[in-house]
What we know:
This protein is mainly β and about 300 residues long. The chain is built from two helices and 22 strands.
Amino acid sequence: MFLIGAIPQVLTGWQWPFEDFEVLRNFGMYKDQYATPGVDLEGVGTVALIEAGELVFRGVESDRLRGVPAPLGSMVAVEHARGFRSLYTHLDPEIAAGLDYELERAITLGPPGISGYTEGGYLHLQIFDQQLRRRVNPAILLPRYFDTQSPTIEEIGLVVGGEIRPASAELELAPGEYALAVSAWDTGRAGDRMPRLAPYRFVLERDGEQLSEVVFDREHVRNGTQRLNGRMAAELVVAPFVFAIGSVELTEDPVRYTLAVADHHENVTVERFELAAAAAPAQAPRGERRLGEGHGAGDELP
């Protein structure tokens, strides 16, 4: 029986910056060869702190600097108990400049999207674990917001000669090991307006035995290379909403695989498929499209 890992517990007493909000871009969502290390939120009202803390950094966009590119605009970083820091960007410059060092949770940081390049007015939030020296996915630390939509698995494919071919029992491929790529996403909430979001967890099983697990928990940069949970982001996310989650072994005997994709709220989509090898060259047919092409792979919001 397939079991997906439990979602980590939230931190007691923490809150989202808005009571009512929508997630425009979530942790790990890929765009322009870069995976988001936090979340972009469009909320109602003003921005609140996730928890009381001490102001440890502020950057205020001013008239003098408006000729210099500043995509994040005015921002503040707040240190909390338990070794965490939170970063809030696109703030009102006047409010950010007037903050005291000791900040209560109820203090307002003003409306979102006042400064920087927001293209619509949103808050960008990051949470940093100082002990691990990693950015942490806010959705695993903050209270769960309403979400009953299960992730979508559009297609499962095998990487063959640089192309991705749909995984099926009819594949004419020679025996061997092949990388597995999945086109999948989560919608967060019901509604046509919601963008595609990155799923939280992928689990691949073969005959009930777990082969691989990919979880979007933490992010850091080492030697100029972005890594998600220790893996190079550019290798894990091969295209927007196309994820390299492991490999499968093709033999002459059919093998049953199970793929589960989960979001942050334990909504899970499971797909089962069977693969077998054949005595045929491992080459993609001419004109084979790449997984994710033609399906709105770049539809996430700017």
